[in-house]
């Protein structure tokens, strides 16, 4: 009669995701493909402490620090086997990471990076779908490959970086 008895007697619901695409669904094909998760970027107020945590405490392989003046950041990559973490620290006062750290004093997740097979086609199609891209042209990212960033307000609050695979 009560809520508890209804919950105890109701059958569990199973959710499934369909992996097959029916031809009747009429899904438009993209000219580009989304690939694997390349990295999750974390803004850190103290790069040496963050490197030490992942290298000395957790035992991960940690790269050397690389300055990327065009992006206003220092980067360090932490290898995780199936993906990487990118530790970001401000390079200069106009760094986007400096403003992020002003709002988030202890640091935190900054963006995710997903590989694409054709970044120019992705840009064209995303613009048609009203997804804002934060630069007119791709810039060269930390891996020496073209990257773009998608506006977080168009991506459910997540800053998304797309990187040419």
UniProtKB/TrEMBL annotation:
PANTHER family: METHYLMALONYL-COA EPIMERASE, METHYLMALONYL-COA EPIMERASE, MITOCHONDRIAL. Methylmalonyl-CoA epimerase involved in propionyl-CoA metabolism. Residues 1-26 are annotated as: Disordered. The keyword ATP-binding does not apply. It is an enzyme of class 5 (isomerase). Keywords: Cobalt, Isomerase, Metal-binding. Transmembrane segments: none annotated. GO terms for molecular function: metal ion binding; methylmalonyl-CoA epimerase activity. Residues 36-165 form the VOC domain. The keyword Metal-binding applies. GO terms for cellular component: mitochondrion. Residues 1-17 have a biased composition (Polar residues). Its EC number is 5.1.99.1. This is Methylmalonyl-CoA epimerase, mitochondrial.
């Amino acid at each position: 009669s009560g809520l508890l008895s209804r919950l105890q007697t109701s059958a569990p619901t199973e959710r499934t995701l369909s992996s097959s695409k029916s031809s009747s669904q009429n899904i438009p094909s993209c000219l580009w493909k989304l690939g694997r998760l390349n990295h999750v970027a974390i803004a850190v107020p103290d790069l040496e402490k963050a490197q030490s945590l992942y290298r000395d405490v957790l035992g991960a392989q940690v790269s050397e620090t690389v300055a990327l003046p065009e992006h206003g950041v220092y980067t360090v990559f932490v290898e995780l086997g199936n993906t990487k973490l990118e530790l970001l620290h401000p390079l200069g006062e106009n760094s986007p990471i400096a403003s992020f750290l002003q709002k988030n004093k202890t640091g935190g997740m900054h963006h995710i990076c997903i590989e694409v097979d054709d970044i120019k086609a992705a840009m064209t199609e995303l613009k048609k779908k009203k997804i804002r891209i934060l630069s007119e042209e791709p810039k060269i990212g930390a891996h020496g490959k073209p990257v773009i960033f998608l506006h977080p307000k168009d991506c459910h609050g997540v800053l998304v970086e797309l990187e040419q695979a």
